[in-house]
Amino acid sequence: MRNAALAVLDSKQWVKGSRGKAFGLAFADHCGALSATPCQNGSSALWAALRIANIGPGDEVIVPSYTFISTATCILLVGATPVFVDVEPDYFCLDVNAVQNAITPATKGVIGVHLYGHPYDPKIVEICEINGLVLIEDAAQAHGASQSFEDGSKKAAGSMGDIACFSFYPSKNMAVGGEGGMLTTINDAYGAKLNGIINHGRSPELHAMELGSNMRMSEVAAAIGLEQLKHLDRWVERRRHTASRYTTALQNQPYLKAPATRPGAEHAWHQYCVRTEHAAAFKTHLDALQIDARQYYSLPIHQQGVFANHPQHHQTLPVTAELGSCLVAIPIMHELTEAEITRVLAALVSFNPE
Ligand SMILES: Cc1ncc(COP(=O)(O)O)c(C=O)c1O
Predict the structure, then answer these.
(1) Which CATH number do you get for residue 212?
(2) Mean per-residue pLDDT for 61-70?
(3) Ligand 1: which of 63, 67, 143, 169 to mutate, most ligand atoms within 8 Å of CB?
(4) C-alpha angle 190/236/161, rounded to 5°?
(5) 188, 179, 175, 165: which is closest to 216 by C-alpha?
(6) Beta carbon of 344 within 6 Å of any ligand 1 atom
(7) Whole-model pTM above 0.90?
């Protein structure tokens, strides 16, 4: 990474150079997409995806509430209306029936999240196809995940929807040495728009054809991303191996439940979330052992201040509410040493809240 970054600095081609193009090509190839464009971060990728799909005022977009905030705020930013639905108790992704029931004549799209690295239900793809809805994949946490489909095909995160959005925030499965994101698509028409949207909506002749902005990734970041991508498969494999050891250790643990994986899914294990009725005690236990533990998305998105005027603000989505209080994420990153994994395993086995 250091050598790649220094080579870019020395070249003085800091923006709009060959690294960005190469990173987009390599990333598209890795996830089986038709094309890809690096951009500033995952949040701006989501905004750009909605713009590319021509979603705006008057349109509804179905979205989970149990996710990172920008999965939903991007919808407000383009002037459309988020429609919040519940998630699956076992896999934490969009609930297929809830999506089906939320479709109205105004629905234009669905944003599905591969939460914690677990791919959403392949039936979401089918529902969107049948109803003519644009499916935007929030793959910010899912580099390296994939899912088998009923027809026998296997699709990677990044090619399981019309347009996908990745984040390279430093905690993600791969990073770029700063902020970064990636837009990928399997759709020809959308592919033609990827470069424009992150370049002020301009044509190659530099005429602004539609609303865009400067959302380009720097060449240093792209060069670092190219290096990181070479290691992604090995790093995800390491996460899978660690996850399977945690799951085995939890088999006979009465107070903690291991996360499940949908048949046909290859989890990317961005997070490993243990389910427990004793979340506070479990966190205290891990704190005492100096093991990092976190609870994500404790307050459902639709109940946060930014959605105070949203018609669903006071609605309870039961699974979303429950997951916010009973899941605890434990360390799973690929850099964990053998000694650190052994410490986590011992902490899992020794937990007893009574
Ligand atoms: C599910 C999800 N969506 C979107 C984002 C936004 O990505 P970024 O932080 O790169 O803007 C994140 C990042 O944390 C995320 O986890």
Answers:
(1) 3.40.640.10
(2) 98
(3) 169
(4) 20
(5) 179
(6) no
(7) yes
